[in-house]
Amino acid sequence: MSDDQRRVPAADVPEDAVLVDVREDDEWAAGHAPGAVHIPLGDLPARVGELPEGDVHVVCRSGGRSARAAAWLQQNGVDAVDVAGGMGAWYEAERPMVSESGQEPRVL
Question: Where does the record place the Rhodanese domain (predicted)?
Answer without folding.
Answer: 13-99
